[in-house]
Amino acid sequence: MNLEPRTQSLAQRDAVLAVIETLSGFLKGKGRTIRLCVIALLTGGNILLEDIPGLGKTTLALALSRVLGLSFGRIQCTSDLLPSDITGLSIFNREENRFTFIPGPLFHNLLLVDEINRAMPKSQSALLESMEERKVTVEGATYDLPSPFLVVATQNPVEQVGTHPLPESQLDRFLICTGIGYPPEEIEKSIIRGGSIRDELKNLTPVISVEALLEAQQAVRERVFLSEKVTEYLFRIVGATRSHPQVLSGLSTRAGINLAEAARANAYLEGREYVIPEDVKALAVPVGAHRIITAADQDGVRKEQLLRSILKAIPVPLA
Length: 319
Known about the structure:
Elements: H1 4-26, H2 31-43, E1 47-50, H3 57-68, E2 72-76, H4 83-87, E3 88-93, E4 98-103, E5 110-114, H5 121-125, H6 128-133, E6 135-138, E7 141-144, E8 150-155, H7 168-171, E9 176-178, H8 185-194, H9 210-223, H10 228-243, E10 247-249, H11 253-269, H12 277-288, E11 293-294, H13 303-312
Parallel strand pairs: 1-8, 1-9, 2-5, 5-8
Antiparallel strand pairs: 3-4, 6-7, 10-11
Helix pairs in contact: 1-2, 1-3, 1-9, 2-11, 9-11, 10-11, 10-12, 11-12, 12-13
């Protein structure tokens, strides 16, 4: 019996877990958000961090790129941001008498899109193709993006000045949407006492190779089994959102696919080669809540709470 593939798989998983452990030690109190970022990375998805400024969203993205050893690009969204500021543009080269394409910050493994909801819709739309297809079309030419590719976008609450709600089509491109929240009291006191840790980012070194990361992504896709029973449970959740009286538009088929992918990644991190219902239940809110559109008279309803109530009403099958 050849144990080499399984041994390699365990080594890859250990390296992925080392990413979570390293970041959790560096960014105190953000363990859940770090795990969700890694789940998004393992599935080839994107993550939206929604919270008030000053809670470490940007620092998390910077630290993630350092620990992963990935090339890093950053876009600071403003109202005058242009699509070419994201994708790049062609500049005429007098010496060669032709136009030369200058890639924008989009052409990096990890792209931080800071305060995405401060950009105008036209600029936001420049990200749609890249987030879904891992390629971008500029001036009629299509360019492949590097692999792995991850968009980490931050969003301020829509109540803040200068923000614009993201359209549903763009929200649907994010595998996961989550907040960071305030750290526990004692941890926050130590953070305040110690000051900013942004300068310490230079001390972080990669703990996983790009090759191992790509192999881990492949393992999640190909080696983690999703049974008919778990698929039925997942579909019942999706179906329940479509028939709920408070919901105008429930989860799409893409949302169901994304939930299955995230559940596989969670099982992989837990050391299992199969998905259990608890994997689906654990990821249903961060994967699904931001995709739900509530009825017109339900504006005050929190989507996360609504989806949790739906989950409670659906019996969890025995694995």
